[in-house]
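explain this chain.
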Amino acid sequence: MTPTSLSKKIGLLRATHQKSLNNIYIWTSFARGALDVAKDDAAFLSQTRLKVPSKVRGKEVVRTVPQLKKIAEVAVAWEIYYSVFVYAVAQVEAFLGDALFEILSFDNRRLQTRVKGIDHTNKIDVTDIIKASSREEIIAGIIEKELASLFYASPLLQMEYFQAVAGISIPEELVLQWVEIKATRDIIVHSSGISNSVYVKKSSSYARAVDGEILPMDDKYFALAVSSMKSLIGKSSSLIQQKLKVKAV
């Protein structure tokens, strides 16, 4: 792989994941708008019995008009954002993982990069070597193990490793915004949206709630988070491509 071909791959990753984030924001807006209308729509509210997934064929549940209105109102207010936010964060994680895979494949020596606190791959199973059809397959396996270990580390350590491997320096503000976004994702998944001491510690000065408070998830924050995630992808890509251009010259 040449610096030019790697640069093109990084550019494609940037376009793919930024487009995905834009699409997520667009259809989320549509979905919230439709539910906002539905909560006052007679046809929607007339559904007293609704089909739901179940091992019992044809399972239905009963919901009153006030209950249906409440379902729509809560979904518009924050439940849709909770569901979508987790998927949006995954787009950035996918970009970081894919970019690292390409960079480490381009320059295998960067597999020697070490960041204290990350459980790096230090040994290779003899069976993996024997079964591999080529050196490239062995290297790819090592990279995959390294990345699997990386995403068990804290967001700050992940970003430290990413910058070290890529040979770039991302603006601190973007890194800290990403750390808070990841901490918010963890609160949604593991704490039902209630802030805890772990969130406060991870987010530091970017924390949006104290221990025990409901973590806000509204239009303003969702838009800001998507914007920050797109910026992190964009800035990372630009810095990597600039470095590759200098090397190529």
Observations:
- The chain has a mean pLDDT of 90.
- The two ends are 16 Å apart (CA to CA).
- The chain has nine helices and two strands.
- The longest helix spans residues 65-106.
